[in-house]
Amino acid sequence: MVMPAPPPDTVNAYLAQLRRALKGAPAGLISDALADCEDHLNSEIATNPDVNETQILRTVVETYGTPEEIAEEYRDMEHTISTPFPQPEVRNERRFGFFNVVSDPRTYGALLYMLLSLATGIFYFTWAVSGIALSLGLAILIIGVPFALLFIASIRVLAHVEGRVVEALLGVRMPRRLPTGPSADERVWTKVKEAFSDIRTWSSLFYMLLMMPLGLIYFFIVVIGLCLSIVVTAGSIYGLITGESHINIHDAPYLEHMLHTAPGLVVLALFGILLFFVVLHIARAIGWVHGKIAEGLLVRL
After folding, report:
1. Residue 26 and residue 17: Cα distance in Å, rounded?
2. Whose CB among 19, 33, 56, 208 lies 3.0–4.6 Å from 128's, allowing a Cys bridge?
3. pLDDT tens digits, 99-117
4. CB neighbours (10 Å) of residue 166?
5. pLDDT in tens, 7-56
6. pTM exceeds 0.70
7. Residue 62: CB partners within 8 Å, gap ≥ 6?
8. How far is the CA of 85 from the CAs of 104, 113, 168, in angstroms?
9. CA angle 273, 274, 280 (to 5 degrees)
10. How many of the other CB atoms lie within 10 Å of CB of 35?
């Protein structure tokens, strides 16, 4: 028999119980729930400075709900939000045949993301490298610290924007709350310490740098794969219709002769079609892997 958890008497204890109650939920959902609750609890403490934290937590549990109740509400709310991607339980019921990839919206979202990743990767990399260089160069000046804090804030905003793109195109639940920085009444060095000690700062910065090589790889995979499959298929069909084939393989004359015949062109057309589906499967797999990368580097738990 599992004993119920004791009522939380601190904000950290409440958040820890909420995190355990949400175990197994998407990381983005957990991040949003923790951030919402932390803001609400800190607001209650700030508005009641004469009441100790334990009593405030008891009041919050009575009015706001226990961590388990809050976790259940967030799970229920998540199911009411419609997305173009099927829910996990629906996807598990589908038959994943080789050709069913064309009916999966994640395939086309991944293709679009891979095409966009070249531009976004170049932008993220340029922004990150320029910001790092300027932050280090201005560190000895009085504007060095404010500039570094501003750069870190921009990285968090870009990480949030990238998370929204990942969720929209790859179907991975990412945080939907805008990142919140330190409060205005904190000292400058406290802000600096919190900014530099937050692992999300460095993981988001690493993600920005990583997107440059990944963007190049993604872009060339989808462009070369799709163009090759389309050209091979279209060229073969054109040869079958017109009787003219412009395929020249000087190092393999027998193979070249075979590809100038109708059976050879049919086989080549089938190969082009097969290659098209292979590219779609590769794109969907890359979308799944990149979603895990984004979830691991951009989501703070």
Report:
1. 16
2. 208
3. 888 888 899 999 999 999 9
4. 23
5. 777 888 888 888 999 888 888 888 888 888 888 888 888 888 787 888 88
6. yes
7. none
8. 8, 15, 9
9. 95
10. 18
Q: Cα(94)–Cα(85) distance, rounded to whole angstroms? A: 13
- Alpha carbon distances (Å) from 283 to 54, 108, 109, 113: 51, 8, 9, 9
| Two tokens, residue 34 | 């923790």
Please state the three-class secondary structure of the chain as a single string.
CCCCCCCCCCHHHHHHHHHHHCCCCCHHHHHHHHHHHHHHHHHHHHHCCCCCHHHHHHHHHHHCCCHHHHHHHHHHHHHHCCCCCCCHHHHHHCCCCHHHHHHCHHHHHHHHHHHHHHHHHHHHHHHHHHHHHHHHHCCCCCCHHHHHHHHHHHHHHHHHHHHHHHHHHHCCCCCCCCCCCCCCCCCHHHHHHHHHHCHHHHHHHHHHHHHHHHHHHHHHHHHHHHHHHHHHHHHHHHHHHHCCCCCCCCCCHHHHHHCCCHHHHHHHHHHHHHHHHHHHHHHHHHHHHHHHHHHHHHCCC
Question: What's the CA gap between 65 and 41, in Å, rounded?
Answer: 12
Tokens encoding 113? 């993301």
